[in-house]
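Please review the protein record below. Tell me whether the encoded fold seems credible here:
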Amino acid sequence: MTASIRELKAKASELIASAKRGEEVIITSNGQPCAKLVPIEPIRKTTFDWEKMRRLAKKGATGKRGVDSTKIISDLREDRI
């Protein structure tokens, strides 16, 4: 889909909604393409699982010192892959 700058000013919400749906919107100035509206990848929010961290710490705990933090982080990363 193409739209002029004038159309963009008048229909910004509609054109952005089209881009969010996956449609590429080319913006033109004096008939020449000058910009493109495209959807962006959604930002993945990750939440930290404290309970999982506790289980991993207990699983690897040996004596007073417990498990090395690098081991816990490594185990957490392996579960994500």
User: Anything to note?
Assistant: The first helix runs from residue 5 to 20. The first strand starts at residue 2 and ends at 4.
